[in-house]
Amino acid sequence: MSFEPSARIETVLSEGRVFKPSSKVQSTSTISGFEKYQQMVDSAKSDPNKFWGDAALKELHWFEPFETVLDWSNPPFARWFDGGKTNVSYNCLDRHVLNGKGEEIAIIWEGEPGDIRRITYKELFMEVCKTANALKQIGIGKGDLVALYMPMIPEAAIAMLACSRIGAPHSVVFGGFSSEALRDRLNDGEAKVVITADGGYRKDKIISLKKAVDSALKNNACPTVNSVLIVQRTKEKISFNPERDYWWHELVPAQSSECSPEYMDSEDRLFVLYTSGSTGKPKGVVHTTAGYNLWAHLTFQWIFDVKKDEIYWCTADVGWITGHSYIVYGPLSNGVTTVMYEGVPRPSNPGAFWEVIQKHKINIFYTAPTAIRAFMKSGRSLPDSYDLSSLRLLGTVGEPINPEAWMWYMEVIGRNNCPVVDTWWQTETGGVMISPLPGAIPTKPGSATLPLPGIEADVVNADGDSVNEQEGGYLVVKRPWPGMMRTVHGDSKRFRESYWEFLKPKDGSYVYFAGDGARRDIDGYFWIMGRVDDVINVSGHRLGTMEIESALVSHASVAEAAVVGRSDEVKGESIVAFVTLEGSNELTDELLKDLKMHVVNEIGVIARPDEIRFTNALPKTRSGKIMRRLLRSLASGEEVKGDTSTLEDKNVLDELRR
Ligand code: WTA
Q1: Is 120 helix (H, G, I), strand (E, B) or coil?
Q2: Which residue has a Cα nearest atom 24 of ligand 1?
Q3: What's the chain's average pLDDT?
Q4: 8 in helix, strand or coil?
Q5: Could you give the dihedral angle defined by the CA atoms of residues 166, 168, 173 and 179, in that order, rounded to the nearest 10 degrees?
């Protein structure tokens, strides 16, 4: 992987504003005051095994206790809580029902058309058991991979929990991915079944999910998939294959509502979730049972500190890690009421988020900077027209948040009454790693502040040495933590090389390289600068430039393609593609449209290039590497600075400038 310091990492923010936790926030927080945070940091540092071991015993239910806390004898392959047996669905459901919380609401769901469901812990427990039994009936057992390709409906959470109940790892594929992308993920994970819906609502249109599943499976393209379970959501007409397809509403309600949880080893796989990397195809990030459960549970508790009768809402989709950890597992493991919303702000209802907050009296709201920036652009009159007084804590995730957006969020949405927590983490980390604890850590707009207790984050140079204050470098984590990914599905070499061997300290220790650039200020606060590899972040969606390039070159007219991110006021980054055409193909508007559509078909609408530029050649080094740094400057209309001496053909640059 090449590290080309880009403008992104050279930008040094000078931000002087500091917001201390108010006395009200401090007095109502479990972790109140900086000293308490510091004590936790110190005890995690002085005896990590005791710190994590105590937390695991306290926060999770164990059918059989673990023997060791961490086995790091074969780095970078960690084993946490070996010997222990637990079950994630038990931790999310049974124990709450047994503790008298059966009648409390687990999920409040609102569909895009406005239909609402409130599901108690007891009801959720029974639905999960029935679904688990239904999966068993169609031949799914421990270790079998279950793929989900679903809209944001309660059945998505129910299916995830049902999988964890019977020990069948799930692989949730975001419903916005194309059938091609779905097929790749089904085959890579060797999925046995796909759970889907006839369709889902998205911006007042219907997305035909079942149709996409049919085309992914066409001509036996996914030989491991034996069955498809379909939730009826939109009631649109679908083609039904009686040899393979089952309706959820026929199969599930007929099952018994009792299903004993499988006793899972701590290190049994809980799920695989595909995410984009800097090379090749998306990688299946593997998370296992106990460590992930503990990390989602603890981080949720530390950061959001949800009180009895409070309502929590995270706007993510269950197709992403944020949905896994902070819509489903974190809140439910803590016995909290979690809101699931199928819709997004859309022309027919631009105030959808504020309406949901007002209607359900949301106390804790967790969303992405891209949404905040979009609202900021359209002005405060819209949010001002809703009653947002129930809010007490605001969170952001997924991309760097600029200080202006952070301030706007605090002032306009939080009415200067809510702390803002900017949480840094990744699919790979399982849960949040760097974030303010609202009752303990003063915030600065644009900074994710300090690592959570037990997380030893640092900023280092290419030799793995810590850099000085204010200097940019690579963001790393120097110790294993329970929620860390365990491997890349089917490719442990890739896991080792891309995360743990890219930066190798002289002492031979293993440090986790996140792929982000960062700097620390004089207070030790972390400022995340964005990716330093070939991953881009478009509206909080993580995409590999190589994936989009492969999609483009798979089009018959394209010879070569290079994709870069261009900074975008609202989306964070937008996608710019530089393309050379095959032989005598001519550039036409038709072809331009066709190429964009081709990327949508290959990956999904989230990867559609915002701009495609045609050129006769791409700038390359003498060894044939595309010089993306130059393309990034060109895409953003900046002057090309820095060294161009390695450029093979200087004329290429002149042509591109023109
Ligand atoms: C970026 C999403 C700055 C970062 C949870 C990371 C952030 C990638 C933040 C992971 C933040 C996430 N500030 N950047 N608070 N949170 N990122 O795997 O570049 O979809 O590497 O996980 O998002 O994206 P992923």
Answers
A1: strand
A2: 426
A3: 94
A4: helix
A5: -110
